Amino acid sequence: MAAFLLRRLANYAVLVVLAASLAYLLAAAALTPRANYEGRAPRPPEAVVDAQLTRFNLNDRTPLAERYGTWVAGLARGDFGRTWQGEPVNAELWRRLGVSLRLLVLGAVLGSALGVLAGAYAAVRRGRTADLLVTFLSYLVLAVPVFVLAVLLQIVASRTNQATGLRVFEWVGETTPGASDGPFGALGGLGDRVRHLLLPTATIALAQFALYSRYQRSMMLDVLQADFVRTARAKGLRRRDALLRHGLRTALIPMTTYFAYTSGLLLLGGMFTEKLFGWHGVGEWLIDSVTRGDVNAVAAVNCVAAAAVLLAGMASDVMYGVLDPRVRTGAVA
Amino acid sequence: MRAPGRTRAVAAAILLLATVLVSGGCGTAGGGATAAAGRLPASDVNPLPRDRVGNGGTLHWPLPEFPSQWNFNHVNGTRGVVEHVIQGALPYLMRADEKAMPHPVPAYLRAATLERTEHGQTVTYELNPKAKWSDGTPLGYADFVAQAHALSGRDPRFQVSTVTGYKQISRIERGTRGNVVIVTFDGTYADWRSLFSPLYPAAAYSSPAAFNTGWLDRLPLTAGPFKLQGIDQTAKTVTMVRDPAWWGAPAKLDRIVYRTLDGSAMPGAFANDEIDLMDIGLDPGALRRAEQVPGAAVRRAGGPDWRHFTFNAAGPILSDPNVRRAVMLGIDRRAIARSDLSGLGVPLQTLGNHFYVNTQDGYQDNSGELGGYDPARAESLLEQAGWRSHGKYRAKGGRVLALRFVVPSGVPGGKQEGELTRALLERVGVRVDIQLVPDDDVFDRYVTPGRFDIVPFSWLGTSFPVSPMKSVFARPHGDRIQQNYSRAGTAAIDAAMDRAVAEVDPARAYALVNAADRLIWHEAYVLPLYQRPQIVAARADLANLGAGGFAEPAYEDIGFTGRRRDR
């Protein structure tokens, strides 16, 4: 199995380099940071603008190959360069990755776990009320775009806050500035964080729930009729055990691939949630950087996204090994 | 997107494309107040004397983006969001009132007097002797020298955003008393009141390195009612607190917390009391949400920006001034304003000036005949120009009278303007072909190269409109059109603008600007539509802040009248 993973890793490394290079070249060719200065009146002195752009390797009058060379040289030292405002991209990237993870992890885990369970349950109860209910709910959520869902939740939350007179829900940002300075100290800060998490977590979890419950339901339906489940029951296992140990486990295997790849993309897909709830994560940064023509930031986010997707691929390979005995024994042999 | 209160000159006339944010589809369905009667006030900020404003509280102020360069005169720092923060912490020697007239701020400047000399002008600044930086050094001569040198453009290592005005400074001297600074200019500079606002400490401008990087993510020295408490890079917030060392009337608020928020998050945050004011822009949807919030007030005033149509006078059809005049007469500006501003509860007023907006000192409607809607006159002008009716549209020499109306596709308001123009001009036999183009391409690929006949957009106005607007109306030199996308102009207009820029007496300057404006109206290459309203939702008990028009707020007077807010 180790050899298999190493081979995979080598493949992935090549892919990451390719993806990152393409991302940089595309961003550098398509985006024009110079436009940030051009619309102004009085227009800043030309020499100043050129000097500024050259300094951050953003000058479109430098040949693309040369800019790419500079960028690669920086990247080899682990340096993604500077934003058009002159800030180091690395620091901002780590900061924003942290924000995105804190925003997404809880919602994603909750949503996918509940989704898988609900999907499996619906499959077992196929055609009955529970199944219909889960199906209806998930289609409803799937049909509503994230930004509408978020606004609906906000409206409900605002009604709740007004009705109760308490500030149960907060929706902009991770924290209220100065929350930890209150009478409850760090504990108050934690409570504040939790209240800020409620709405975005619900938004993300609902969206994930809807998606996973659909997938899991159809996977499970395939498995329910399979021979090995019948065999398990014939051996004397109760229906519940047969379904959980043999059915669900088998049905989860194809899901791992799906989990892995969507979690890589979830990071970027969080952009709507981030914008609507005022969290300053990676997704928001990508959109803003594209509109500002901030080449180095766009390239860095794309680079990380490529790495994340491929890491997720690795994780899924490992998960396969754990869940599917055939992979393990195959590798040993 | 612009937040309330910002008006200073230098950020000036940036092209504003994404302006009319009429949410598609529900623009007119909302009903309610469509247009109020009367005229827009110059400012609407709930003005209250200091003794009626409560002490204490925290103001939560949203910023549309998070700046990292806090040196306003650096090429990356000249932005409205930066001003929102530093106006409370750095010296502004002059502050514009709601009609754009600058006045000395007594906490920093007791008086400034101008004297004409043989070769130019001399300004004597008498500073407030109590004014000092947070490190204890008094404001004065050294700061003036450093700023004038850094912004003169003589040392290219200073990455300045503009050298206007400062490059004309030839000498700075100490007065007889310590708090007097005498600045001598080469030639006259009418907008001298815009200089040294903000004023930075000498240390910040003494070397290119300090200038370019010393204010990145930092405000090392301040001299205002507020000082910096902290910048949170993760949450993207800036917290300012009352500065006990401030020598003026103490700030009413304990704290101002600036939070960076995307426009889409603002209505929700405002409804949930997480921000205390919000710029509505021209979005009736956001306005309706804000109006439903208990304890909120919507403040409306005339803003500095104005909407207009630019005509391409180098195009095959509009190169004839009479055709341009006919097209202007065939466009009902009130109908377009009514459509753009529907659902916002603002009075309808068209704009009759290319330099000043309706609420500005010096404003005068110079549109004359061209400002009205007169299809009959438009038709007779077209007849005279040789465009005769052939069926539905006019034609001349086998060419149909058809105009390209270029609209950025991401701006729904622009499309509505195009469709209205098409319907209106069809009545006089002019065909309008609306060309939807990607937002980013509008200027690069259509307007700057001249591939259009009519394009709608907004100019950002300023308290000192003549020098920035010169680049819009001055005759182009070959390919160097600056921002004169019409590619029109006359020697008389250039001369009139030069005279206006050189005039230092306000009353005479107004007359000269209006003379230039009349010439521009006569050439008919830019059709002003209306002054954009400034619509700001705020807590009803927030005093001395809101839709300020041109006025720049005195930060120490901002406060709440209601219960104390500690949140």
From TrEMBL, chain A:
Membrane topology: Multi-pass membrane protein
Assigned protein family: Belongs to the binding-protein-dependent transport system permease family.
Keyword list, A-Z: Cell membrane, Membrane, Transmembrane, Transmembrane helix, Transport
Compartments, as annotated in UniProt: Cell membrane
InterPro entries cross-referenced by the UniProt entry: MetI-like, MetI-like_sf
Protein name per its UniProtKB record: ABC transporter permease subunit
GO biological process terms held by the UniProt record: transmembrane transport
GO cellular component: plasma membrane
Stored PROSITE patterns: ABC_TM1 (PS50928)
Keyword Transmembrane in annotation: yes
Stretches that traverse the bilayer: 12-31, 103-124, 136-157, 197-215, 258-277, 297-320
The keyword Transmembrane is assigned to this record: yes
ABC transmembrane type-1 domain span: 97-316
Coiled-coil annotated residue ranges, if any: none
